[in-house]
Amino acid sequence: MPKKPTVDDARLILELYDLRREPELRKARQWWLITFWPKSADDFAKVATAMGSKENNWLRQVGSYWGIAVSFVLNGVVSEKLFFQPSFCGELYFIFAKVRPFLTELRQKMNNPDLFLTIEKAILASKMARAQFEKVEARVTAMRQER
Q1: Of 9, 46, 64, 79, which has the maximum CB count within 10 A?
Q2: C-alpha separations of 38 from 23, 59, 63, 75 in Å
Q3: Is the pTM here over 0.90, yes or no?
């Protein structure tokens, strides 16, 4: 995955950031970050199977956005060094930390072994991302216990 950052990498990061400002994606991100705190695979599956609900749309929209974005890193399209900066993808770490505790069960329950797979691969394959994720995961665990 390592690649020296280029001006094109910086442009792509800015384009990805700009996409996050789209009004509906903003609502979806807000919901993921503030409101959606699944405690189990069942909690997640309940939303994931509520087709047509705004929460289901938001769940899929944010998951798809980050899945596509990390695919750029996994395929060498964008620099890992730029992409995994907390200022750009801190949200990615936060979202993944929310589902990681029950990810194996969730994949079984949803009959989808690839659920969050690109996100998991990208984070775990990068020393930089793993180190940052561990910090965020600890904070999310503490936040979850407070809820």
Answers
A1: 79
A2: 24, 11, 14, 30
A3: yes
User: Cβ(63)–Cβ(86) under 8 Å?
Assistant: no
Distance CA 25, CA 28 (A): 5
Q: Are 122 and 74 in contact (CB under 8 A)?
A: yes
Domain ranges of the chain: 7-146
- Per-residue pLDDT of the chain (147 residues), as tens digits, is 456 889 999 999 999 999 999 999 999 999 999 999 999 999 999 999 999 999 999 999 999 999 999 999 999 999 999 999 999 999 999 999 999 999 999 999 999 999 999 999 999 999 999 999 999 999 999 999 888
Cα(109)–Cα(112) distance, integer angstroms = 8
